[in-house]
Design goal:
CATH architecture of the largest domain: Orthogonal Bundle
Strand content: under 5%
Number of strands: 0
Largest sheet: none
Distance between the termini: 13 Å
CATH topology of the largest domain: MetI-like fold
Number of helices: 14
Shape: elongated
Mean pLDDT: 78
CATH superfamily of the largest domain: MetI-like
Low-confidence stretches: none
CATH class of the largest domain: Mainly Alpha
Structural class: mainly alpha
Number of domains: 2
Order of helices and strands: HHHHHHHHHHHHHH
Helix content: over 70%
Radius of gyration: 24 Å
């Protein structure tokens, strides 16, 4: 297990180098002068030249990239061109808001999705199953920015039940969490249904029923736990997508997270902030996938047995 974790962490290095180089190249090819963003409207030619030299923008492309990587591995992601604050401080100030939103959306998606998928599998081909499958199809196809706008129009502007923007408590979290988590909810519902349908046809489930175990105990205690592996897989992947997909939802709801910060800094061509945000998302995605793989062993004893066999 330790060797597996170390191998996966080692794979993170080329991924981060590739992502950083790609984003660094794209940001340097986009139009706009970062020095103008840094200095503001009023500056002299001498000030522009001095700031260009100070920021290292007068050096060749590859030298600038290597200098950035060298500082980044030491935890120094530079200074924001627009706010003149350390990039890491800017991100850390916004990150908790995004994390709260992503976790809330994931909890909403898992709880509702597993419940709907379990009931659909237990009542296969029923009216509830058909309605749940149809709703899941709509949820997968629905853009979260459109859903967010509809939620604002109906429940914020129309009924006035929830605030439409900014973070001001639990009520302000409900609409963006629903908008962000609906797509994941639909995917988890379908995955739970298909996985559970496969599991309830196994011999040990039929044996439990033959012993007279109540149906709800057969489904929850015996079938659902053994059907959790693909559900854990898709939930872990969805958490990574939720953090990345929060860009659009945070913009729609004016949520003060790193997604909204990414949109703002791309418009301003704030290269240090954009690079740091993309690298952070890549790291989080990899760590989430690694955590998902480790959770396999917790829920499936067969995987633990395989690790023990390899160790022997």
């Amino acid at each position: 297990m330790y060797k597996f974790i170390l191998r996966r962490l080692a794979m993170l290095i080329p991924v981060l180098l590739g992502v950083s180089f790609l984003v660094f190249t794209i940001m340097n090819l986009t139009p706009g002068d970062p020095v103008e963003m840094y200095l503001g409207d009023n500056y002299t030619a001498e000030a522009h030249a001095a700031m260009t030299h100070e920021l290292g923008l007068d050096k060749p492309f590859f030298i600038r990239y290597l200098n950035y990587i060298g500082h980044a591995v030491q935890g120094d992601f530079g200074i924001s061109y627009t706010t003149h604050q350390p990039v890491l401080d800017e991100i850390l100030a916004r990150f908790p808001s995004t994390l709260i939103l992503a976790i809330s959306a994931l909890i909403f998606a898992i709880v509702v999705g597993v419940v709907l998928g379990t009931i659909s599998a237990a009542k296969q081909y029923s009216a509830f199953d058909s309605a749940s499958t149809f709703s899941a199809l709509i949820g997968v196809s629905m853009p979260n920015f459109w859903l967010g706008l509809m939620l604002i129009i109906i429940f914020a502007a129309g009924l006035g039940w929830f605030p439409s923007s900014e973070f001001s408590g639990i009520k302000s979290l409900i609409l963006p969490a629903i908008a962000l988590g609906t797509n994941s909810l639909a995917i988890i519902t379908r995955m739970t249904r298909s996985s559970l349908l496969e599991t309830i046809r196994q011999d040990y489930v039929r044996t439990a029923r033959a012993k007279g175990v109540k149906e709800y105990k057969v489904i929850i205690k015996h079938a659902l736990r053994n059907a959790m592996i693909p559900i854990i897989t898709i939930s872990g992947l969805q958490f990574g997508f939720l953090i990345s997909g929060a860009v659009v939802v945070e913009t729609v709801f004016s949520w003060p997270g790193i997604g909204r910060l990414l949109v703002e800094t791309i418009k301003l061509k704030d290269i240090p902030v954009v690079l740091a945000l993309v690298l952070m998302k890549a790291v989080m995605f990899t760590v989430i996938n690694l955590t998902t793989d480790i959770l396999y062993a917790f829920f499936d004893p067969r995987i633990r047995a395989q690790y023990k066999a390899r160790k022997v």
